[in-house]
Known about the structure:
The complex is a heterodimer of chains A (241) and B (317). Helix content of chain A is 35%, strand content 25%. Chain A is built from 10 helices and 10 strands. Chain A has helices at residues 46-54, 76-82, 99-106, 121-127, 129-132, 144-156, 174-189, 201-207, 225-230, 232-238; strands at residues 8-17, 20-30, 35-39, 61-66, 69-70, 84-87, 162-166, 193-198, 210-215, 218-223. In chain A, the strands form 2 sheets. In chain A, strands 6-7-8-3-9-10 form a 6-stranded mixed β-sheet, sandwiched between helices. A 4-stranded antiparallel β-sheet of chain A has the order 2-1-4-5, covered by helices on one side. In chain A, helix 3 (99-106) runs parallel beside helix 6 (144-156). The radius of gyration of chain A is 17 Å and the shape is globular. The relative contact order of chain A is 0.19. Chain B is mostly helical. Chain B has a domain at 31-240. Chain B is 79% helix and 1% strand. Chain B is built from 14 helices and 2 strands. Chain B has helices at residues 2-24, 31-56, 64-81, 86-108, 113-133, 135-138, 156-179, 181-191, 193-198, 203-229, 239-252, 258-277, 281-295, 299-315, and strands spanning 144-145, 231-232. Chain B has a two-stranded antiparallel sheet with strand order 1-2.
Amino acid sequence: MTDNGPMLKxxxxxxxxxxxxxxxxxxxxxxxxQVMAVLGRNGMGKTTLIRSIIxxxxxxxxxxxxxxxxxxALQPHEIVKLGVALVPQGRRIFPSLTVMENLLLxxxxxxxxxxxxxxxxxxxxxxxxxLKERLRNMGNQLSGGEQQMLAFARSLMTNPKMLLLDEPxxxxxxxxxxxxxxxxxxxxxxxxxxxxxxxxxKFALASCDYVHVxxxxxxxxxxxxxxxxxNEEIKSRFLxx
Amino acid sequence: xxxELLATRGRVIAIAAVLAFAIVSPLFVxxxxxxxxxxxxxxxxxxxxxxxxxxxxxxxxxxxxxxFGTGAYATAIMSAxxxxxxxxxxxxxxxxxxxxxxxxxxxxxxxxxxxxxxITFALAMLIWGLAxxxxxxxxxxxxxxxxxxxxxxxxxxxxxxxxLIVAAGVFLFFSVLVHSCFGKTMxxxxxxxxxxxxxxxxxxxxxxxxxxxxxxxxxxAGFLWVYYNSYVAPTDVELVTSFNALLMVSLxxxxxxxxxxxxxxxxxxxxxxxxxxxxxxxTVVGCIYIVVVLFAPEGIMGFIKxxxxxxxxxxxx
Lengths: 241, 317
């Protein structure tokens, strides 16, 4: 929690794609160092929520506040500069740049605290040692898991205060999903706020402090991960489990 | 690591060989060939500047004749009408190209992809219209003639060497630029604008800067062209000029530095030699373009790179 309140505050946002009404009055709050999971089936508005926060698809009404500043109308690059980083769905790296170049493209003297705590290539490579061996490889020469690590590492290079993770385990082997969980635990220690949008309920519940369930663009359930794990009705109605 | 060193050494040797050829060859060939070589260099600068947008940043422009023509007309007007010196004409040409490029960029960058292409084309047609209709300033259809080079570079060979030095400087500048951090952002924008925005880049501003650099160097090519030709006419600003530049880049290999120079060399030599046999040189050039697009969509340099990759894969087992 920052001095004046939550790190991110989403207040009653309504987001459309043309005539398609996707987010229908969604609100949530995330505090510093908190991992918040948002679960829901396909097409329920999870990615749209992330796009609304980062500024790719602006809400028609409602307000998004980050670290006390109203970011609803800001451009994505302005929001990133304030300290929000996105790890996009589908491992969106730059295929014709090397791993090192991909990392350096993200490099910023960020909004997060400087000094020893700031992210640089050494620190991200310590978190993802596999990338160290692949620094000279082109992005398109990496495996799916390595691409996910690179997308993750690159977003950390912007020195964010908050991470938006859009289905980071999508298409990953179970071993890599476990490694991703360990990475999230380490990041929690560095007080990063994390919004984790997932379909993999098991992974999300094991990693988060608090969880929201989305259905048709609205939050239909909010609880601790343990409470959701025990709530068979919500899981079966809204998550198909 | 060893492969990279070898590739770098190969590149240095190739550049040195081309430079040596460019320096020595005028001493052994006739004047017409020197003129052709000079054309290769000037069109090479235009193609390089277009490649910065098309190949490196993924912005396909069909309007580079506008910036080339602005540089050319500004030079011609200053030199022939106002009697300006070579240096004065240069300064005005670059300022004029900068102004026109900035205006065009502000309009064109509101769109992307094919719409961007069409807007750059439409804007270039406006500049062509000005050149064609503004008789009192541009000489209309007759153009402007009688642009003399300074005495010290009056002869063909000296002017060729002057152009060679400028072209080498442009190549060096572009080489530093594309290998810099800014150069990597260009590739990043080409591959995904949204990914770059998500990393905190002001993509519009980057594209504007790239557009400006590209337009300025096109204006420089126009400046050199006028002193080469001693004449400028609306044909220098028309669609065919923009298209030719696009063809040179596509032919040689977009997204490479050697490609546009190779493309402009092949194009100029073909254009000059085909012209000796037929008036339908554009048809021949068009056919070549189709063949390249079908069989080497990434141009000659892309084709060579593909062959090299296949050979490496075969060596690795």
